[in-house]
Amino acid sequence: MADSKSGYELGEVVIAEDAIEKRVAELGSEITTDYRDSAPLLVGVLKGAMIFMSDLIRELDFPLEIDMMAISSYGSSTSTSGVVRILKDLDTDLTGRHVLIVEDIVDSGLTLSYLTRNLLSRNPASLEVCALIVKDGKSRHIDMIKYIGFHIPPSFVVGYGLDIGERFRNLRQIYNYSGVTEH
Ligand code: 5GP
């Protein structure tokens, strides 16, 4: 089964499937209240936010558009390099648009800081951030995040879109990753 603990690398469940489902629905209703009249553009950050974004937009009850952007952050290691590169840019012109960035997880905040500066330079009418997870402790730039799904301790996690070396994105829950690999 795709979401079973299929190996010794996975630690305990950090966020269970039902908790994710409930929180995504809550975020959806908050965002619906705030954006129902502004036809926003939701910008998903590939690849990690893909699963969260697809669940979140189905909880939004108003006209919206989506676009995706891919940026480099971690390779297959578990610490941030601070170097951010756009691998795939948006197809949409942001001028005058109400933009909501949808992020998977904020650790140091470097990726988000780069991304918000970059998107603000494109003259949107407004720019806000929705992050599924914020790691306590290290995270800076938290004030930029309007909608936060969960706060977790600063350990490396996988599942629900989050990977290590491209593995585990398909898990339905979020697990601690022990750091032991078979490679
Ligand atoms: P930051 O720039 O905030 O340090 O890192 C943000 C990016 O690093 C996230 O978008 C994500 O791609 C990756 N990242 C940070 N922490 C984790 C984690 O615990 N697990 C996984 N799989 N990726 C993480």
End-to-end Cα distance, whole Å, is: 22 Å
Number of helices: 3
How many beta-strand elements? Answer: 9
What does the main sheet amount to?
Answer: 6 strands, mixed
What's the alpha carbon Rg, rounded to whole Å? 16 Å
Mean pLDDT: 89
Structural class: alpha/beta
Q: Order of strands side by side in the largest beta sheet? A: 4-3-2-5-6-7
- Proportion of residues in β-strands: 25-35%
Helix-strand pattern: EHEHEEEHEEEE
Question: Any idea what the shape is?
Answer: globular
Ligands bound here?
A: guanosine-5'-monophosphate
Summarize, please:
The protein is of the alpha/beta class. 21% of the residues lie in helices and 30% in strands.
What report would you give on this structure?
The protein is an alpha/beta fold and 183 residues long. Helices cover 21% and strands 30% of the residues. It contains 3 helices and 9 strands, in the order βαβαβββαββββ. The chain has helices spanning 17-35, 50-57, 110-120, and strands spanning 10-15, 41-46, 65-72, 85-88, 98-106, 126-135, 147-152, 157-158, 174-177. The strands form 2 sheets. The protein has a 6-stranded mixed sheet, sandwiched between helices. Strands 1-9-8 form a 3-stranded antiparallel sheet, with helices on one face. α3 links the parallel β5 and β6 (126-135). It is globular, with a radius of gyration of 16 Å. The two termini are 22 Å apart. The structure holds guanosine-5'-monophosphate (5GP). The site of guanosine-5'-monophosphate has 20 residues, from β5, α3 and β8.
